Structures are given as structure tokens and as C-alpha cells.
Amino acid sequence: MRVLPKTDADYPPLLLVRTDYRDDDAWQRVLAALDKPWVFDEDDEDNGRSKEDIIRVDDPVWADATPADVLAALTAPADGEDPAECGWPVVFLADRASMRGAEPTLLAVSPDPEEETEPYRIPALETPHEMHCNLAIANMDFDEFGE
Question: What are the C-alpha distances in Å from 13 to residues 42, 51, 90, 143?
């Protein structure tokens, strides 16, 4: 059964769902890219670096899952209730395309049912941290990162 965590944290960790299991070395490259912090201000006293905490969903039950599959699991209603809000500002998928390029990418998916912007690809290096941070504090909107 496909189940994903929900959150009610004011500032939740970054949620990463692996959906491709063909190449473990490529998965390690994705994780290595995510291990590098986002440098947002080199003049800042802490060197202007930020690395979000990450919840990694690395379960083959998610093999070949689509963004719609992930969103359905995140917003699955309790018995007889309306679809639930999951609490995540963005969800990242490590799909087949993420694993194939020279540089790892992720598919960014908005869990907001009112979001009209389709999922889009971002570099796995720094961008997920920047995007998650700015969306979590409502500094930017999902569509702004896809421009």
C-alpha cells in the first residue's frame, strides 16, 4: 500500500519520493547533490548556507509512481471526509528522468489543489533547498520557480 507522511509542522522538512529503482548509483548521485547546502548569502555570519532536513521515501512500492499517484496518497481523505491537506509546501520526486542526466534533477510537484502550474524539473543541486525554504515561509510561490 502506498502511504506518505503528512505534516502539520510550521516548517516541515523537505519531502523526497524515489520513484525509479533501476540505478542505485544514480540514486546516490541524487542524494549527494542534495547533501550540498544552498549558498544564499556568502557575506552572512554563518556563511549564508542552508540545507533543509530531508525525509526520504525510498520504498519500491513507489516504483514508477506518477505525480498524480503521489498527490493522491498525500491528500487521501480519511473515511468519508474531504481530501486532506498534507502540509508540505512542495514534494520532490526522484523519477527516471532524475536519474538519467549528467546532472541529477528532481521533479517538483505542488500539493496545493488550487495550484495551476504543472510539475516541472529542477536541478538537484541547491535548488530544492532554496525552493523548499522559500515556499515554506511563503516568500515565493510554486510557479515562480518554474519560470
Answer: 23, 10, 10, 20
pLDDT tens digits along 92-138 = 999 999 988 889 999 999 988 788 899 999 999 878 888 888 888 88
Q: In sequence order, which residues have a C-beta less than 8 Å from that of residue 81 and are 6 or more positions away?
A: none
Sequence letter at residue 141: D
Task: State pLDDT tens for residues 25-51.
Answer: 999 999 999 888 776 555 655 555 566
